[in-house]
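Duplicate of #3305? Posting structure anyway:
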C-alpha cells in the first residue's frame, strides 16, 4: 500500500468509527426507561413495582404513591413524575437544569439524579413525557408534628445490637 492509500484508509476508518464512539451518548425513550429502572426510580415512584418483582404497570409508571415515608422530616410522598416534568420544566433543556439542581426531603435520593449525565436526563425526560396521561398529584407532605391521614412507612434510625 502506498502512503497515500494508507492515509486514505485510516481516514475512512475514522469516519466509520466516529458515530460508533458517540453511541454511548444516545438519547431515547427506551434508554430513559432503562435509566428509570437501574436508577431505582420505579422502586418508589411506581406503585406495585417492587411487589411484582419489577413489572412496570403502564397505567402507574412514575405516577408517584400515596403511601408516605415518615421520619424526622415529616411525611413525604413519592412525586408524580409525569406532573413534575410538566410543571417544573417547559422544555427538555429546562428539565435538565431542574434535575441538575434538584434537592428534596428524604428519602428521595436527589443526589443520584444530579449525578446523571445530561444524556441520561434527556432520555429520562423523553421517557416520562411518553408515558401519557399525567393523572393526579400524591398527597401533600405532612409536617413532622402532624399525623398523616394515609398509610405510611416509618423510617427509624438504625438500632445497635445488644452486646
Ligand atoms: C426511596 C424512595 C425514592 C426513590 C428510590 C426515588 N424517589 Fe424521587 N421522590 C421520593 C419522595 C418521597 C419524594 C418527595 C420528596 C419531598 O416531598 O421533598 C420524591 C420526589 C422526587 C421528585 C420531585 C421533586 C420536586 O421537585 O418536588 C423528582 C423529580 C424525583 N423524586 C425523581 C426521582 C428519580 C428520577 C428517581 C430515580 C433516579 C427517584 N426519584 C428515586 C422517593 C424516591
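Output from current build:
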Amino acid at each position: 500500500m502506498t502512503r497515500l492509500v494508507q492515509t486514505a484508509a485510516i481516514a475512512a476508518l475514522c469516519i466509520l468509527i466516529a458515530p460508533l464512539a458517540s453511541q454511548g451518548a444516545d438519547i431515547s425513550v427506551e434508554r430513559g426507561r432503562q435509566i428509570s429502572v437501574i436508577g431505582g426510580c420505579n422502586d418508589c415512584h411506581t406503585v406495585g413495582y417492587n411487589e411484582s418483582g419489577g413489572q412496570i404497570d403502564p397505567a402507574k409508571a412514575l405516577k408517584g404513591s400515596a403511601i408516605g415515608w415518615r421520619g424526622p422530616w415529616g411525611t413525604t410522598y413519592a412525586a408524580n413524575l409525569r406532573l413534575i416534568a410538566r410543571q417544573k420544566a417547559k422544555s427538555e433543556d429546562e428539565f435538565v437544569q431542574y434535575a441538575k439542581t434538584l434537592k428534596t426531603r428524604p428519602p428521595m435520593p436527589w443526589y443520584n439524579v444530579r449525578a446523571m449525565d445530561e444524556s441520561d436526563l434527556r432520555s429520562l425526560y423523553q421517557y416520562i413525557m411518553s408515558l401519557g396521561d399525567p393523572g393526579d398529584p400524591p398527597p401533600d407532605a405532612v409536617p413532622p408534628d402532624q399525623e398523616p391521614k394515609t398509610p405510611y412507612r416509618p423510617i427509624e434510625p438504625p438500632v445497635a445490637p445488644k452486646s
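Confirmed duplicate; merging threads. The pocket of heme C is lined by residues 39-41, 43-45, 69, 76-79, 81, 84, 88, 102, 104-105, 107-109, 112-113, 141 (CB under 6 Å). The radius of gyration is 22 Å.
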